[in-house]
Design a protein that fits this description.
Elements: H1 10-33, H2 38-51, H3 64-74, H4 76-82, E1 91-94, E2 100-102, H5 106-117, E3 123-124, E4 153-162, H6 169-176, H7 180-199, H8 203-219, E5 222-225, E6 239-244, E7 251-257, H9 259-266, E8 273-276, H10 280-307, H11 310-328, H12 332-343, E9 345-354, H13 357-367, H14 384-394, H15 400-407, H16 411-434, H17 439-443
Parallel strand pairs: 3-9, 4-7
Antiparallel strand pairs: 1-2, 1-6, 4-9, 5-8, 6-7
Helix pairs in contact: 1-10, 1-11, 2-5, 2-12, 3-10, 7-8, 8-10, 8-11, 13-16, 14-15, 14-16
Amino acid sequence: MRNGEPQVSSRSLLSRQHQTFFFEWAAIIPLVIYLASYKFSHTLVGKTSLTGRLYIGLFPKLGILGSVASLLNEGSDYLDRVCSISELKKEVWDANFGGTFTCANGAASALITSYATKGRKPISVESTTPDSGPTSPPKDLSIKHQPEFRRYQTLHVFQYSRTNVPRTITDKLLRWHFAATFKIVMISGLMACAVVAVFFGLLGTAVAILTSACIQVCCQLVRIQRPGRFLDPNELGQACMLTSLHNNATTWYLFAGDRGIVDGILNKSMIYSISGKLGDTSTKVLASIFATLELLQLLSMTYVASQKGWDGIGMLILVISCWIWEKAVYSEKSVVREWITEAGIDISVTTFEFSGRTPMLGAIQLWKQNPIEVWMDNILQPTPRRQVWLSYLAGTNTLDFIVGLEKSLDRRDKRWVTGNASRTKEALKIWKEIAPLRKSIVES
């Protein structure tokens, strides 16, 4: 002892420093990883659109509850805005009717395409025909044998049909967890965990758990209505719609088959209205409650981060538990699988890789068996050589008008026509061998 004060060993001081660092690290992790981005609102709308329920999990990311409040206040306007976020917005080209429009359910369609194409490797339909480039020899002989530049295009072909999908044990368990009894048990369990957290002095964690319980109660008071005749067709025949982020993309998605399903995904809103179950006034009240819960969530997490003690450990355990629950029950895969099962939908997916955009568009034009060509105008501009090329695909190249138009083309354009016509037909041949056209589409 010195001057009546106990001496502190260097080992004890180092241990305290490590302990302080551990508590600070544990307290800051939940706050950092729970910062949401605009994509989480996009996913929220997608999951809600597919399931017809408010899908936000046990303890959502910071900012999600504010998005729910906006959803309740603004309704369809909020849905349109979220589905049109710049880099997540999708354009749609109706190959059968020639229309072009923005995808009405960009968030939901993104979840479906991600689920259906995960892990798929594209099948090459690369042609062995001569290149369609310029016919004049290159001035620099040193680059004569260098390969021509190719902008390869990936096309995911989705064919939708109606079916009775048998329920697996997993599907039944996932469905069971939405039952009212289970919700009551879950909310009671959260309340019990909050009491235990208070008993151990973990006030910030207790508030977070209570917030989670209130979120679950509020979600049960939200009503989401589907539009009338949801997934029923308004037009005769089958659908064939091409979609991508923009008209200069390299990855494309072709939705074909049952028109009611394809229209319901791309062209019609999946949600008619979102309101409170207790009347119009309850909608505004719920929106205010969700906004308040968001503030309470932020306060609890920042309090824990500033506390730097065991409360941070408790919050970290809560975050990890909610993450595991999210992956097991509220994952994007389980949401899409539930929608497919509930709606009785069968999806057949094949992925192709084309050597260029022109052969891909030509293969779609032949595959859909519909003479309408204007659908591709925004992707491949109408020109005389395009008209001649399409006439070769349709077998009308012997018409006097087309013969005269072809004669007016220069050597470069003529080679472009013959090269792309050959590549298109060869690609379609491979396409039909691997993924033959469904009977229902052929009949249309």
